[in-house]
Amino acid sequence: MALTGAFNAPIIRTSSLFYWRLSMDIEQCTCCFVDLEEAQIGRCEDCRQQIDRATWTQKIEAIKLAAERVSRSAVRQVAVSINRGIEHMGYKDHTEFNCSCEEEYIFGEAEHLIDELHLPFRAAIDDVIAQAESVSGESQSLVAGQ
Q1: CA-to-CA distance for 5 and 11, rounded, in angstroms?
Q2: Which tops the pLDDT comparison, 138 or 11?
Q3: Residue 5, class by beta-carbon neighbours within 10 Å (0-12 exposed, 13-18 middle, 19+ buried)?
Q4: Of 11, 12, 60, 138, which is the most exposed, with the fewest CB atoms less than 10 Å away?
């Protein structure tokens, strides 16, 4: 005999994996899945510091890179959001939205997709920053060699 709920509809049993994933989102960092103290939703201090260290342009590049690592659909959704932000900056002022620059607003248009699509944003930020540092190091060595 099947279990039924209201209106005699069958009750769908959800797996413990679903509850584990749900609790993980609440109790762990959404970037790196490190346990958060006090079970707060958000990012661990290490992730926040690394993300804060990046420029807005690097954050935009990182969200594009993270989407590429997930799926074509994610790439399209991120591109649409970023293009929407770029379009808005054609006729809006970023200061209206308490943003320090246009790039901050543009990133803000796509930022919600990090959690919604489970984008590996922290890893992408790390890669973008490492790439920028290696390019910077190469250009400094070229200048020093002249």
Answers
A1: 6
A2: 138
A3: exposed
A4: 12
CA-based nearest residue to 67, from 114, 32, 33: 114
- Residue 73 in contact with residue 120, Cβ under 8 Å? no
Mean pLDDT estimate for the chain: 76
Instruction: Provide the H-helix boundaries in 1-146.
Output: 16-27, 45-53, 56-68, 72-88, 102-116, 121-145
The phi, psi pair for 10, rounded to 5°, reads -65, 140
Quote the pTM value.
Answer: 0.66
Residue 104: alpha-carbon gap to chain centroid: 14
- Average pLDDT of the segment spanning 110-134: 90
